[in-house]
Design a protein that fits this description.
It contains 10 helices and 18 strands. It is an alpha+beta fold. The strands form 4 sheets. It has a 5-stranded mixed β-sheet. Strands 3, 4, 7, 8 and 9 form a 5-stranded antiparallel β-sheet that branches. The longest helix has 38 residues.
Amino acid sequence: MRKRRDTAVRAALGASAGLVSGYAAVAVAELAAVAVRPEASPLTAVGGAVVDRTPPAVKDWAVREFGNDDKLVLQLGILAALALFAAGTGLLALHRRRTAAVGVLAFGLLGALAATGRPDSTSSLDAVPSVVGAVVGAAVLYVLAGRLPHPSAPPTPASPTPSVSEPPPASPTPSSAVAGTPTPDEGTSAEPPSDEDAGRTPAPATRPSRRVFVLATAGTAAAATGVGFLGRRLNASTAAEAEASRAAVRLPAPASPAPALPRRVDLKLPDLTPYTTPNKRFYRVDTALTVPRPDVGSWRLRLHGKGVKAPLTLDFQDLLSRDLIERDITLTCVSNEVGGPYVSSARWLGVRLKDLLEEAGVKPPSRGGPANQLVARSVDGMTLGTPVETVMDGRDAMLAVGMNGEPLPFDHGFPVRMLVPGLYGYVSACKWIQDIELTTFDAYDVYWVKRDWAREGPIKTQSRIDTPKPLARPKAGRVTVAGVAWAQHKGIDRVEVRVDEGPWQRAELAAEGPLDTWRQWSWQWPATSGSHTLQVRATDRTGYTQTARRTGTVPDGASGRHSVVVNVT
């Protein structure tokens, strides 16, 4: 029983040595990333590699289930996997200390390969944080494993009890009283002295004790915490500098202001999504585990490629000095399920993209231009492909610098992002953009196309019920049913609602805003007691009415009609 207990304790101590070494490796790597760039940290690099290799169906499920928290869930999952690996190396170190340390080094090599293999990696220095962290982690594990206490040996048999008639023989000072000699309670094992040692005073034991191991482990964990804290402070300082550079931006007045909105464009009903989405509530779906924070002073945009007669390189002030347009535009993510939340509307300020392309000598394919795809690249290496013909057909495609009256938030692409009304974000809304290349669809597949999404992504006509919510319990009588419908660059002509497969009832539309925005609607339902299913459909200005056929989001967006079940009391 005692042996089994000692084995379990030793295993727990070994696992803790592995966990502390992994903790130290991550902390040191994060600090080293400050000197290279935040995106080179192993957690970010490995997380990005996982995102890149995740099947589209799984990625779509993660967005659907976790929404804006999908990246947090991924990072927690990576930390959990790292903790399991670290605990495993600690257990291995109980018997093969060097092999376990080499395993940590090999794991660090994987992190280095992930960092240098990212699309945004431009230097082998990106491998440094992972390598440094792995070396430190391996060294810590090797040292701590050497401090692990050995299993307790069986106690030395007791000497015969002296008879009462005989006084006990004089004994030398017990070994436990010798200064610096651990007692058996501290983890040493008592062994009978050899013939050579007979008659000598026992030497102090050299086997490590549990107390020594605990102190060494706690000290290492404390040091790693200090290193991690320093790394966070330095990263926070860098982020603060980026925030300050954004706060210093002063956006000029638009040369072409947004048209005034009709008075009843927003019905302002309880639980109905507002016509203009506040920046903090605007949906965010991207692959960036660490939000890029480009320095606006050093940011540059390069426009080049096939059919570009006069390549352009622009800085932020170059864009602000041009004629800016201001437009209300609704954006939609291709990952948005029927009735989903990944659609929002804002007032954008930016430079008309068509003007820049024409200045560079670009012609659309319909006018003989050789390029049919515009590839936009962000500072984190993301690539999006957009049809050149669509960008130049007269719609308000732009390089946006402002959102709802302020510079773009970092989450939404500061300093500059691209957007093209009528196209899903995955083919048009490149955030943190820094490069535009004109090419062809046959010559280059962008990030999402390589992952089985469609090359072109026109937004499908959709509608959504915002109120009442699913499983709501309204009282019988007049119940307001309301929501939004969208068909960007086509416009909404009609919205209809029905109850329990009954006849379609025409809803009242809010005043119409710009063609590239969504439209609110409402319908007064004479509700009766019981469980009922409400369903909505929209018809756009081309005459197309939403199909009842449900499809998933892959490869070009979901289709079908949104419905909710309510229980009227």
